[in-house]
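If you are new to this repository, start here. Below is one unmodified record pulled from the training split, so you can see the exact layout before writing a loader.
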Amino acid sequence: MNFVLDESNDLVIKNNNFVMVSGDDEIRQRLLTNLRTFQGEWFLDTTIGVPYFQEIFIKNPNPETVASFIKNEILNTEGVDDIASFSIDYDAASRKFGFIFSVKTNSGNIVPTILSIAPTAVLPNESSRTYLINFVSSSAMQMVIGNPGDTAICLDNPGQKWAWDNDSNNWRPVIEQDAFNYTRRFATQADMLAATGLIGEVAIILDNPGQRWAWNDEQNQWIPAL
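And here is the target side for that same chain:
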């Protein structure tokens, strides 16, 4: 038995009590939780999760390779004995994957599951999302399509930081006094203050769009833009 999680992975409370889940529903929730975990997002163990950015959300992904990563995560989920059925769908325009599968549990039951996932899945609110992605090498990084605000570090040269340039549709190195001319959009001031910027970045807050902000690298914080 475990706690019920909603679509945002928050605990569900009803009548001032946590809602519990068990049996096949618990296995389905465990599957979705594991498959929605992006490799590298949990700082205590960056090997946990599916390598979406490293292997899946790349230019011209191989469906067989994608399926192998998803199936491996499914089979490593507690309570799953085998995969009974599996199908995959991919929308190139949105880079969105859809998976329809069913598993055979250790108790012999068949549990059907549907999962849709895209590059924005970690933080559904596009206005506040930002990723620091770790790549094994620069060549691996160049295979991945980023989003405005994404930054990256390659493990073969960790001293160099990279940022996604939406105009050139490519990664570019971050250098001193670099001007990216990004306008980041945040839902609230708290979201903005929690985010790390880049040299040259500007931002607006949706509840006060008339005020522009700029990232000050010396103070390591956002300041009002004059």
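Two things worth knowing about this chain: The first helix runs from residue 23 to 35. Helices lie at 23-35, 52-56, 63-75, 138-142, 189-193.
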